[in-house]
Amino acid sequence: MAVGIGFDIHRLVPGRRLMLGGIVVDERFGALAHSDGDVLLHALVDALLGASGGGDIGTLFPDTDPRWKDAAGDVFVAKVVDSLRGRWMIVNADLVVFLEQPKVEAFREAIRRRVAELLRTEFVKINLKAKTMEGLGPIGAREAVAAQAIVELAPIGK
Ligand code: MG
Question: Of 8, 15, 89, 126, which is the most exposed, with the fewest CB atoms less than 10 Å away?
Fold first, then answer.
């Protein structure tokens, strides 16, 4: 088994859509980013890369590359999942979102389902937790959104 961890944070600004796990969760405030700023998928990508020894999201998809301008997090996940094919099976993904508002609870099942689609299996155990920061710090002040991910991979044919 191999385990990987990922973290991401973006500043929240008006006039962008907030994407989490490939789902629109707010139309008024969104993550300031070169890509679509989906912290949950970015953390997931880094966790997958960490477990498989594949590097990190910033190296593979640099924010200076015009190809990734406004790129959906889905694209990064799809590319990394492709790179695992035939080598690693995704066993489990445990995800945490840190967001003051809106409450992630209303989107939990939609996000979980979308992440399962992106990982291209119904059989992966995907768990999604959401925390507020109890009003503390930049996330508590609704100036930022963050996410953590941890995944477990099993090698295929080794
Ligand atoms: Mg990011």
Answer: 15
Three-state secondary structure of 43-54: HHHHHHHHHHCC
Residue 142 region by backbone torsions, left for phi larger than 0, else alpha for psi between -120 and 50, else beta? left
C-alpha 45 – ligand 1 centre gap (Å) = 10
Whole-number Å distance, alpha carbon 126 to ligand 1 midpoint, is 20
List the structure tokens of 53: 């020894």
Query: Ligand 1 mean position to 73 CA, how many Å?
Result: 9
Q: Judge if pTM exceeds 0.90.
A: yes
